[in-house]
DNA sequence: ATAAACTTACGTCAATAACT
DNA sequence: AGTTATTGACGTAAGTTTAT
């Protein structure tokens, strides 16, 4: 199965193209008192996790686009090289034929 | 006209290579 | 060792071609 869940709980019934948020997100309206002395309430942790995930997805999205662009270019390059070599080959075959011909007629 | 088959581009995940 | 970048594999949507 390709659609395996990631670190945020495998929800097999959710289409892959939907953006999932970490399950650590608290229900609407629930406000936790920030633990005294720290800036790391569960909410803040969850928000930070979401922010990190979205940033990661954004970066990877762009990386994937670039990767495909490079691959396409590479393939185009190869195809071009094939065309060039095919032409060279054709020319060489013609040349060989001509030389053989010449040699034959000389031999008579 | 349209249903089915094929193509193209995309976003995501996971593995791993490259970097610090 | 932890973090970030790269890329193959997969599923999806939209576009195009082909057969009826």
UniProtKB/TrEMBL annotation:
The protein here is known as BZIP domain-containing protein
One Pfam family assigned to this protein is bZIP_1
State the encoding gene: CREM
The signal peptide, as residue positions, is none
**Which PROSITE patterns does UniProt cross-reference here?**
BZIP (PS50217), BZIP_BASIC (PS00036)
Report the domain of life of the source organism. Answer: Eukaryota
The keyword Coiled coil appears for this protein: yes
Entry's Gene Ontology molecular function annotations: DNA-binding transcription factor activity, RNA polymerase II-specific; RNA polymerase II cis-regulatory region sequence-specific DNA binding
- Keyword annotations from UniProtKB, A to Z: Coiled coil, DNA-binding, Nucleus, Transcription, Transcription regulation
Using the record for this protein, list the coiled-coil segments as residue ranges, or answer none.
68-102
Q: Where is this protein localized, as stated in its record?
A: Nucleus
**CDD domains per record:** bZIP_CREB1
**Lineage of source species:** Eukaryota, Metazoa, Chordata, Craniata, Vertebrata
Location of the BZIP domain: 50-101
Q: Name one GO cellular component term.
A: ATF4-CREB1 transcription factor complex
Protein species of origin: Catharus ustulatus (Russet-backed thrush)
């Amino acid at each position: 199965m390709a659609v395996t869940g990631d670190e945020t709980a495998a929800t097999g019934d959710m289409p892959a193209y939907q953006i999932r948020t970490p399950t650590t997100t608290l229900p609407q309206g629930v406000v936790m008192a920030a633990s005294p002395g720290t800036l790391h309430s569960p909410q803040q942790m969850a928000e930070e996790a979401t922010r990190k995930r979205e940033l990661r997805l954004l970066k990877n999205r762009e990386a994937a686009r670039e990767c495909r662009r490079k691959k396409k270019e590479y393939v185009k390059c190869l195809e071009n090289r094939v065309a060039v070599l095919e032409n060279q080959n054709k020319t060489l075959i013609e040349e060989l034929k001509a030389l053989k011909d010449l040699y034959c007629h000389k031999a008579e």
